[in-house]
Structures
1.
Amino acid sequence: MNEIEIRQSIIDHCRGMNASGLNQGTSGNISVRFGDRMLITPSAIPYKDMVPDMIASMPIEGEYGEWTGPKKPSVEWPFHLDILRSRPDVGAVVHTHSTFATILSIARKPIPACHYMIAAFGGSDVRVGEYARYGTRELSENILRAMEGRSACLMANHGMIATGSTLEKAMWAAVELETLAKQYYHSLLIGGPVILPDEEIAGVLKGFASYGLQDKTKEDGKAA
């Protein structure tokens, strides 16, 4: 997709996550890697009112916090930028205040291996990053620690982050994370889940490596 199409896709996914209940109001935000820049939702603009020109553009490398566009970027731009800087495998970041993931983040409960789909996030759990005020560099640092070896995390007393190589995959991950959070929450109400052992999750991870449509490497076109 060209830049205008990507900007419109960001808006479409923002509207979609609110329509589905994955997010409410303007509390969530989305960023996408586009070459050496990050395209990110603007601050405090209702999704229904957004047009492509309002999506802010920021250099991934270079002066920290520099941006271009008629609207300033989301106040959460630091963790979006730092994830893209530190994780070349990530092409998009989705942040939402989805109900069940946020409930667990408020209780500061990581999601354990209550279902084999936990492996979709890179390991046997989804961690909770330590609390820091929104929009701060401290929050960004806490998120990066929580996401070591993972593609998603909960944010204490805040919400969740999911990533992917594309925006479509990041949004799929956000939906899956909220689903797992909902399942885990309800299992706690009936006595608690039976946790799958680490060796089972390791086997699932190996299976996922060859499951479904895989990304291609630039070098040889083989499944990555």
2.
Amino acid sequence: MWLFRPCGVYRPQGDTWLLARALGQAGIRPGADILDLGCGSGALSILAARNRPRTQTAVDVSRRAVLATRFNTAVRGIRVRVERGDAFDRLAGRRFDLILANPPYVPGEPAVPSRGPSRAWDAGFDGRAVLDRLCADAPRLLAPSGTLLIVHSALSGVDTTLHRLREGGLKASVVARADEALGPVMRKRAPVLRDHGMLTEDQHHEELVVIRADHVVLPATD
């Protein structure tokens, strides 16, 4: 897929395409209201348009990512409302039938950056700075019977994500897995991650997972 990608915008890679495959298998019906959370270059918004949604919204904290998504969707004739800012603040009170999320999840740095390209991947010491917010806010962002598809590294705690989504009343499970070679950022942090037991000494790959969470509406009882 050709994409206009300014310097500093996250490049679609293994996690993007794993999430894209899960989207293709999710059985999303036409007419959905779709959110691409952390849209980067807009690759997932482009692929989600194949589901013939009613509306599409994309959000990113990066000004360049917003520009890239607007351009990449517009040149394909795809109508997407692209917004810049903190998604959890900007979208308060709105509901979506499908949320696609490839949030920052790389562990190892104690502080979450407030600017620069590393905002696309740095997520605090345990990699959960954004994941935990997403798990907490997902029930409020999902419409009744809505679906969340979220991709992240197993190093950031698959069981923790499942537990917190279920705590919010969602039905959650792992629907896709793939092994990926450690990327440049992970390789650079490998010594720290090994010191803290997140990587083994001979580990040069990480497992990526896609978790599906559904907002199940129980039938009314008399």
3.
Amino acid sequence: MGSIEIKALTDAAGTRNMLADILIETVAEGGSVSFMHPLARGAAEAFWEKSLEAAARGERLVLGAWDGDALVGTVTLLLDFPPNQPHRAEIAKLMTSVAQRGKGVATSLMQAAERFAIEKGRSLLVLDTAAEEGASGLYEKLGFTLTGEIPDYALKPHGGLTGTLIYWKRIGPA
């Protein structure tokens, strides 16, 4: 693996296609990211089209991890919250291509998302992850605190229910 570069993504030629590839692969591998297996390419591309449009409006930031010309991971930072919650952001859709897992891509994406949230004046990050086969170990290593579990929260991509774990982290200056 070469040096990973983290960049904000736009709906540039080819980017949506690469994002769709990562989403389809993640769902096929059992990743609980709101979709069921098999995930149709058109549905994956439509999701990313909407997500990147929201990013263009400043409602979120979609970050990509690049290894040369290959997009190997992504995370979304949700920024559009009600007037009484201008201090927080939410982490969503952290995904790393299967071939790149365990190589620090997800950690780099999370650290970049946290830096951007701080730059945007946010002091609290929240996220959730599947109770079964989710990324709780990663989030705890990065300093997130487990609030609790909601049982039977969502269907797993291949069927059956899983709970979700809710995490938070204070960021930026105290």
4.
Amino acid sequence: MTILRVVVGFGLCCSLSIALALLAFWKREIEILWIAFFGVCRILPSIVLIVLLLVFVPLTWLPFFIQACVVLPLMYEQAFKSLESFEQDMYLFLRFYRISYWKRFQKLYLPKILQEMYKNLESILGLCFKVTIAGELLAQEETSVGGEIFIQKMYLNLSTVFAWCFILLLLHFFMLMLLKRFGVGYESLDKSSL
């Protein structure tokens, strides 16, 4: 269940950050909303967010909401900065040849965003693992790594806690290798793709 929560949460955060960054890029007024929400998430410590979410969110959804509050702001910031980093001649090129928004998204914006996210993939995935385990630990989910660590900690069974930590490191490594294997195509970007 932990792997499923990490994969689903990471995918949701990634797709939501791309959608929010594109909305803010095309309509600059919307950016104020995201800055306010993500500013609150960035300022408050993670443990405070987790405690607040424990009160208002069902326990089964807690890891996803924690990922949204901790991981999503970082991914959004990367996505938005990658869109802002386009050169002025690229805008003139797109406007002059009247390239549709869908083609811009598919051939230019999405590869550029994924290229920037690919650079920080290891730290983002590691953070996603951390906050998911923290949410499971505090929610005391029985069918999860976080819940198992919580139970073993109560019985002072440190060897099992260390074993779970080692398993988490291996899971993170294999997921990272898998994502990097699929991300090979996002190393170069030019106008010829349009």
